[in-house]
From TrEMBL:
Keywords: Metal-binding, Zinc, Zinc-finger
A Pfam cross-reference name: PHD
InterPro entries (alphabetical): Znf_FYVE_PHD, Znf_PHD, Znf_PHD-finger, Znf_RING/FYVE/PHD
Top-rank lineage group of the source organism: Eukaryota
Protein name per UniProt: Zinc finger PHD-type domain-containing protein
UniProt domain Zinc finger PHD-type: residue ranges: 252-299
Length: 305
């Protein structure tokens, strides 16, 4: 991985525009994969292959997008429009670490290049981001599990194409974990997705509702949302998109804004999840003995109202 420069403060609009303006792919000062970033690293991500345009998202860590397509304020009306996505790290305990951030800059309607800037507010040095991302969410024994490494989107695309022609175990053997494939189950899931999508039939609303976990946990983990919409009619796609958005939104505790994976309870009304301690849930409900738990009854503003 090549580092363009080191900046221990967040980039200004002028700095970002200067980097974009001076960039030439022939200078070979860009990267096609991000590994072991340090605090302060400014990386220009660029690839001539469209299949690799999203590989910048795989850097060995988990991130929470805290701001999408935020426009930077230009110096003058004639200056180019630059947008920024702002991320905060998710640690091994599924908590948001606000001290470690990643800023991603890009031009409007231009896929490449992309500027990625890492900062750890706890240090003023250009030091490695030595944090554990934690295991994959589906791992049963999390204590001794290795850190989850997200598969490169370009590798997933290639696997998705291969499993439609060959057996999953052969595809897994060919690609191996060195290229980022998580396990054999991932290849099997991709084949299952391909079989559904290659049927060229519209997915019905009844199927979405009855297989909601499959739709979100497999479809979204293994394939991009782009291109999925064509398998739905307009009304069904609205249902699917709404359910997906709700799941992503509702899994964050409204009190502490961290992910609810364990020791949490769902409001039967608004469907938001709360940590036991954050909502001061009684032992009765923690043991699952209560018929229902509604956040409004315990001093919270129910999101459905």
């Amino acid at each position: 991985m090549k580092v363009y420069s080191v900046e221990l403060k967040r980039l200004t609009y002028e700095q970002v525009v200067e980097i974009f303006t001076e960039f030439q792919s022939s200078d070979q000062n860009h990267s096609e994969r991000i590994e072991f970033p340090k605090s302060g690293d400014v990386i220009i991500f660029w690839s001539s292959e469209s299949s690799k345009h999203n590989d910048w998202t795989t850097d060995g860590f988990k991130w929470k997008n805290q701001g999408t397509r935020k426009a930077l304020i230009p110096t003058s009306p004639n200056d180019p429009a630059v947008f920024k996505n702002y991320y905060q790290m998710i640690d091994r305990n599924k908590c948001i670490n606000k001290e470690v951030i990643k800023d991603v800059y890009f031009f409007k309607d231009q896929a490449m290049p992309i500027i990625v800037h890492y900062l750890d507010k706890k240090t003023k040095a250009n030091s490695l981001l030595e944090y554990d991302s934690g295991p994959h969410g589906n791992v049963k024994s999390k204590e001794n599990a290795e850190n989850y490494q997200r598969t490169l989107p370009s590798v997933l695309s290639q696997i998705k194409e291969n499993v439609s022609k060959r057996a999953p175990h052969l595809v897994y053997k060919e690609t191996s974990k060195k290229k980022g494939v998580r396990d054999l189950k991932q290849c099997q899931n991709l084949r299952y997705v391909n079989e559904i999508l290659s049927s060229n039939t519209l997915i019905k609303a009844k199927w979405i509702i009855s297989n909601f976990n499959l739709l979100t946990d497999i479809f979204l983990d293994e394939i991009d949302m782009e291109g999925l919409e064509k398998f739905f009619n307009i009304s069904t796609w609205k249902i699917a998109k709404s359910l997906i958005d709700q799941k992503v939104k509702h899994c964050f505790c409204p009190v502490c804004s961290n992910v609810c994976l364990e020791n949490s309870i769902e409001c039967e009304n608004c469907r938001f999840w709360y940590h036991f301690d954050c909502a001061k849930v009684s032992k009765y409900h923690r043991a699952g003995k209560g018929k229902s738990w509604i956040c409004e009854k315990y001093g919270f503003v129910c999101e459905r109202n």
